[in-house]
Amino acid sequence: MKTIEVVAAVIRKGDHILATQRGYGDWKDWWEFPGGKMENGETPEEALVREIREELSADIAVEKLLKTIDYDYPAFHLTMHCYMCTLAQDAMHLNEHESARWLGRSDLRDVKWLPADEALLPLISAELL
Questions:
Q1: Model confidence band, residue 90 (pLDDT cutoffs 50, 70, 90)
Q2: Is 66 helix (H, G, I), strand (E, B) or coil?
Q3: Other C-beta atoms lying within 10 Å of the C-beta of residue 71
Q4: Which of 51, 95, 99, 102 would be 21's cystine partner, CB 3.0–4.6 Å?
Q5: How far apart are CA 59 and CA 4, in angstroms?
Q6: How far apart are alpha carbons 7 and 37 in whole angstroms?
Q7: Quick one: CA dihedral 116, 122, 124, 125, positive or negative?
Q8: Contact 28, 112 (CB under 8 A)
């Protein structure tokens, strides 16, 4: 099975985190943490900064590794390095996603998460205490 290695930003603003809705592909309309594939020679942190600039036209501060998730989708194995982050400024623009929402601890399950991203919710809930 093919393995894809990606990074994801759990962007925190106060007691909320950013969720983004996919606008393309097999998982269109599902919700995820923004990020994407690492390029050759990039550290996960460098890839995450680049991906968030591309997807949200925003700069982030990468704070800490929350968890690396391994998940088997039907067509591939995903290794996803998930980092807690903050925005350098409030402005952002959705370049690839249909929508975005700031979710608080009680709202985390109000959207239909991608399966690998959903595995992070208990950890994020603890972070938002």
A1: confident
A2: strand
A3: 15
A4: 99
A5: 24
A6: 6
A7: positive
A8: no
For 26-45, what is each residue's pLDDT tens digit? 899 999 999 999 999 999 99
32 phi and psi, to 5 degrees?
-155, 170
Q: With CA atoms as reference, report the closest residue to 123 among 48, 73, 69, 47.
A: 69
Beta-carbon contacts of residue 117 (< 8 Å; ≥ 6 apart): 8, 31, 32, 33, 80
Which token pair is 28? 């269109």
Residue keyed to tokens 């592909």: 25
Q: In this structure, what token pair is assigned to residue 124?
A: 């994020």
Residues making up the chain, counted from first to last: 129
In 3D space, the residue among 60, 75, 69, 74 whose CA is nearest the CA of residue 118 turns out to be 69
- CATH class of the region 3-127: alpha beta
